[in-house]
Amino acid sequence: MAALIRMGRRVVPFKCGPDFIDPSLHRMICGTDSSNLDLWMSGEKFCHRCFVRESSRGDISIIEGVMGAFDGGVSSSASLAKALAVPLVLVLDTASAAESVAAVAKGFEVYDPQIRPVAIILNRIASTRHRSLVEEACRAHCQAEIIGVLPRTEGFSLPSRHLGLHMGEESPLSPEAIDQLATTVTEHIDLERLLTLTPMSQPSTPPPPGRKKEARIRLAVARDAAFCFYYPANLELLEQAGAQLLFFSPLHDQHLPADIDGLYLGGGYPELYGKELSANHGLLQQIREQANNALPIYAECGGFMYLSQGIRDGQGQFHPMA
Question: Which cofactor does it need (predicted)?
């Protein structure tokens, strides 16, 4: 994505499936929200409408897949590619194989005749000899074109924890690291050929966004480093239904927004910020009072933890909550 942006392309990012972390990394790179496309959770009609509408904001759309292309049945990357009629690009890990990589690529080509990969990127190639073995086998047995060969390197990694990689808002990559990655991609992947093999086609007039009704309720939404798991589409649907979203930070704000009709506490990492959240006594007390006064509260994942008696962190420290 960074390499294409460097070329002057307007990249619109997407993620296959229900994921909060990868879209945050897309947002870090592209400076725009990344939409989740989940056939099981949202259905084909919604995914198609979302893809067409959001794609109209740029001149290239990139959908990051999930696991292997066919893993997950109806929720798989391959199923999404079929539903949206978009080309599939394979990124194949070659770290522990040579000619066998061609067998894997061939398997992807014949597994479902309705989904045919158009290009292959070979990842973690160790040497010139290794590259020759893999490329010769793929060209002899596969139809998909090899458009890139990324060298094996130990100099790049993303920090991770129990739920996966660190969020984009935590800046897990420095600007220098992102620039170096973009340079590596530019040097080792034929991006112009990639664009040729994956032409972007869409209706000339994308479907109009859903009309936002006049705001009828004021909904407070917790949003900061501790509460960062939200799907942009869900927030948009709330606004279309007539909710005015009032964002606040349980880490930094001493009070809830004024005159609210409901409270939405999303997921995130409250266990990493137990001390700070617990120390915000005024806000916790106000949430207790609002709950006792029957304010509608919807909490999920980390937001539900925030409403509990307390959270015990990884060091064994207990932090009282709401």
Answer: Mg(2+)
Q: Using CA atoms, how far apart are residues 202 and 50, in angstroms rounded to an integer?
A: 12
Q: Is 142 a catalytic residue?
A: no
User: Which burial class, exposed, middle or buried, applies to 209 when counting CB atoms under 10 A from its CB (0-12, 13-18, 19+)?
Assistant: exposed
Instruction: Read off the pLDDT of each residue in 41-63 and give the average, rounded to a whole number.
Output: 94
Q: Pick the catalytic residue: 47, 50, 228, 301?
A: 301
Domain count within the chain: 2
Domain shared by 191 and 278, yes or no: no
Whether 183 and 38 share a structural domain = yes
Domain that holds residue 244: 217-320
Do 27 and 166 fall into the same domain?
A: yes
Say if residue 302's pLDDT is above 60. yes
**What is the dihedral sign for C-alpha 322, 253, 25, 10?**
positive
Contacts of 101 (CB under 8 A, 6+ apart): 92, 94, 122, 134, 137, 138
Number of neighbouring beta carbons within 10 Å of residue 73: 10
Contacts 24+ apart (CB under 8 A), 309-312: 310/278, 311/270, 311/271, 311/274, 311/277, 311/278
Report pLDDT for 122: 98
> Domain holding 46: CATH number?
3.40.50
Higher pLDDT residue, 167 or 5?
A: 5
Residue 30 in tokens:
């592209």
Q: Pick from 197, 228, 254: which residue ends a domain?
A: 197
Reply yes or no on whether the pLDDT at 60 is more than 80.
yes
For residues 235-245, average pLDDT? 95
Identify whether the C-beta of residue 177 lies closer than 8 Å to the C-beta of residue 190: no
Number of helical (H) and strand (E) elements in the chain, helices listed first: 13, 14
Q: Are 255 and 289 in contact (CB under 8 A)?
A: no
pLDDT at 206: 58
Q: Per DSSP, what are the bridge partners of residue 246?
A: 220
